[in-house]
């Protein structure tokens, strides 16, 4: 089962995914895409660490997501990726359009090969005013396009609002 | 029955809540959290006044929401709070982190004690691009966290889009 | 059948509407509201052109939408308008409040008279942080109000997230 979990800022999407991972009773690998670039992000990472069980295996991978997924693949396990929007941001900040495209293609290409269950967490960022600055607009475009591709590939898609899930697919 | 009504800008969330209040056939108390800080806000307040029945009891309370709820409590009545995002904004502008936290805790603590029916209206603000300025980001974080807490506490949660309700809970 | 299709940036709302138009097996007229004001918009228009069938009749109309709808009306056809948010933006940039109001009233007034099936595509822009600049705030207000009016008038309203439709009405 491969599942995409979308939600806005502090919508409870990570918590929902963590709960699904725990209820699966399988060994959990968390692929964390955040990098501790500043104090605020460090604080968010710390809070996420406190909220999740200490025995989870954690892989920190800001860019090479499909490689990390393939290396940690295991038919009896569940892998939680939190979150795709940070990964896209990291790729955009690399300013390497070819890699940005390639990493997304790699992710889509590796999904059918994975044997572990998969929980992909991502931010819904497209339902507000379209931002004026070109980088934010590009980010919104890339995110929307990626969500469409992943939603087609995944077995289940869920939207979280105020901590409450709505099933969009599956 | 305690209900949380979420929706974007001009989504029809206030109108939906007002309709529910009227259909209840109970005496309605409106707790309005807006303060007439500038001409635009004054205009919004005027428009809201025109849209609602003249016989409703109106309490204007920008900050001490739980106190206002407890003072206006009445087992046969329905209380409409419009809206929580303005209340959070007012608290954030006070620049008193302790009070910001305390008022939210007070709100959550008083909910199980209230005897009146309750309609809480709030803005969904977390599904667009994450804003660059720290105050907006803090506001989005606080709002998202509050919505999660209230959604757990309320009997029903509804999301309004284009005037149309979707039931998220209840 | 008149249908309103809402969705965020790159949510797949145009693609969804195009698919409905094709599946109808009726002759399709597309009313495109985009104007090629800059390179980025030109690129978006080109991409949209590539994605749609070449035999569709295309009318480019940035402002006089109800006139275009009435001129292209045909009981056996389906008309796709893509998109209303660009049309509202074009009207706002005219800085003629009377015309802004009039064109929206004209659109609402002509809907019951149209004999063709209708697919109206529009951007959900109200579920992020309320923007600080007055023009964006006005745009969000106008869009929200228009969506409410159209949602009442249309037979079906659909919200697209990650390419996946949710029925809000009908």
TrEMBL record, chains A, B, C:
Active-site feature positions: 48 (gmp-histidine intermediate)
Residues binding GTP: 7-14, 32-34, 60, 82
Full protein name: Bifunctional adenosylcobalamin biosynthesis protein
General function of this protein: Catalyzes ATP-dependent phosphorylation of adenosylcobinamide and addition of GMP to adenosylcobinamide phosphate.
SUPFAM superfamilies given in the database record: P-loop containing nucleoside triphosphate hydrolases (SSF52540)
PANTHER family for this protein: BIFUNCTIONAL ADENOSYLCOBALAMIN BIOSYNTHESIS PROTEIN COBU (PTHR34848:SF1), PTHR34848
Pathway: Cofactor biosynthesis; adenosylcobalamin biosynthesis; adenosylcobalamin from cob(II)yrinate a,c-diamide: step 5/7; Cofactor biosynthesis; adenosylcobalamin biosynthesis; adenosylcobalamin from cob(II)yrinate a,c-diamide: step 6/7
EC number annotated for this UniProt entry: 2.7.1.156, 2.7.7.62
A single BP term in Gene Ontology: cobalamin biosynthetic process
A single GO molecular function term of this UniProt record: adenosylcobinamide kinase activity
Keywords annotated in UniProt: ATP-binding, Cobalamin biosynthesis, GTP-binding, Kinase, Nucleotide-binding, Nucleotidyltransferase, Transferase
